[in-house]
Structure to design on (451 residues):
């Protein structure tokens, strides 16, 4: 299969990657005195009726939760546990929950990465490296085919410079365009967002002269991946156009791109000489006695590997879905979710990114004031806002013994005209380290301004 057809075939396969059913996870989060209670329910939507998660997936979840709520015969399986701080990687990511307690109230922080890469920069670096190696092979093969041709230098320059940079950009866009899909899905608006990502890639190709007309849709319709000769005809014309040659003379400039079988044989012969393919053959020979039924590697698999490393699962939006509900005592201070005042719940609906994609994050911050304490010692309740959250966060940075000193001082306060002066009377006992001293001064300043 010619290299350009491999790219097209992979693109089409990624478009359909999520079409064969999906996994749905519902997560219910409830703050408790000893941590965040997390209840996860999962099932497969492959048609009617729904299906259970795989045994491997159920075993994996069972290692992360102490309680399996549902009996084994239920289609929708539910797990539950309470987590004081670190959340389980049940959704392929990372999460944390913190309750920052202070005498005035408690600030709560919930963060979670849902799927995606833990090191996005490394993933982008690896994709770019794969793109560069893919282009290196294309350039080397063209150089070999055009070694006696007068157009060799201009074609080499185009492939080595402009084509390389365009393919790098396509790889980057293929990673970032699906972010729009996820945002749209979270807003309940996104049945055609996968196509929007493809149109974005097609628009880039049109802007950079890879289509021979201005109609992006018509340009895409020219590609029939089942028509080898037709694909080669388009490749010849685009190459000629990009290299400043006459598209009508493209067959004369690129005679080795006329017959698909000849292209395949020539490309296979070139790829067999590469160190990567030799390593593949050596690995196959080493496995031979243990795996006699495994056929030898095909040269085209080398290109498939590089295309996969460059573009896998990044054009299509994942079909797998996560629905999170967080129960709160009141509106959050900050969040990327949707708060419903009627039942005091915060909700997210997220398409779960693939493992090498850019991740999706959800978060919420809220604060609960200790109204009884504040009323008893201040005569009123301070606003449960960002300032109170920052107070609780700063208080949490002080060692426990110093927290006790500060709390004891606050408990000695009484409402009245002398309250502000009494607040400023506080001093930590010596010796005291500078960070704790500074934190105490900032806490006093907060109270003085708030009262």
């Amino acid at each position: 299969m010619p290299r350009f057809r491999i790219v097209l075939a992979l693109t089409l396969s990624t478009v359909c990657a999520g079409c064969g059913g999906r996994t749905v996870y519902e997560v219910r989060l409830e703050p408790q005195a000893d941590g965040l209670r997390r209840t996860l329910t999962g099932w497969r939507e492959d048609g009617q009726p729904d299906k259970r998660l795989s045994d491997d997936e159920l075993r994996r979840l069972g290692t992360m939760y102490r309680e399996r709520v549902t009996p084994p015969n239920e289609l929708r399986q539910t797990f539950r546990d309470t987590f004081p701080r670190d959340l389980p990687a049940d959704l392929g990511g990372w999460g944390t929950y913190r309750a920052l307690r202070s005498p005035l109230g408690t600030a709560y922080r919930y963060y979670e990465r849902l799927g995606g890469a833990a090191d996005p920069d490394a993933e982008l670096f690896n994709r770019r490296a794969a793109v560069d190696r893919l282009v290196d092979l294309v350039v080397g093969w063209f150089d070999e085919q055009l070694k006696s041709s007068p157009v060799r230098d201009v074609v080499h320059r185009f492939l080595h410079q402009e084509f390389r940079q365009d393919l790098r950009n396509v790889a980057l866009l293929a990673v970032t365009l699906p972010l729009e899909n996820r945002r749209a899905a979270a807003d309940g608006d996104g049945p055609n967002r996968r196509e929007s990502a493809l149109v974005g890639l097609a628009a880039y190709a049109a802007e950079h002269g890879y289509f021979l007309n201005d109609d992006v849709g018509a340009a895409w319709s020219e590609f029939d991946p089942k028509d080898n000769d037709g694909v080669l005809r388009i490749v010849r014309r685009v190459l000629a156009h990009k290299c400043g040659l006459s598209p009508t003379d493209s067959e004369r400039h690129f005679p080795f791109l006329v017959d698909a079988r000849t292209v395949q044989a020539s490309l296979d012969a070139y790829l067999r000489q590469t160190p990567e393919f030799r390593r593949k053959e050596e690995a196959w020979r080493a496995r031979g006695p243990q795996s006699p039924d495994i056929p030898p590697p095909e040269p085209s698999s080398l290109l498939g590997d590089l295309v996969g490393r460059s573009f896998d699962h990044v054009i299509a939006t994942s079909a797998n879905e996560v629905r999170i509900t967080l129960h709160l005592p009141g509106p959050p201070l900050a969040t990327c979710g949707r708060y419903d005042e009627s039942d005091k719940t915060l909700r997210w609906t997220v398409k779960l990114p693939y493992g090498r994609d850019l991740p999706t994050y959800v978060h919420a911050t809220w604060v609960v004031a200790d109204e009884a304490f504040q009323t008893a010692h201040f005569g009123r309740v301070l606003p449960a806002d960002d300032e109170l959250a920052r107070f609780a966060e700063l208080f949490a940075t002080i060692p426990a013994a110093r927290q006790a000193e500060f709390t004891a001082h606050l408990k000695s306060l009484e409402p009245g005209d002398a309250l502000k002066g009494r607040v400023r009377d506080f001093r930590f006992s010596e010796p005291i380290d500078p960070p704790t001293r500074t934190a105490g001064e900032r806490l006093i300043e907060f109270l003085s301004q708030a009262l």
Summary: Residues 1-19, 188-193, 215-220 have pLDDT under 50 and may be disordered. Residues 120-145 form the longest helix (26 residues).
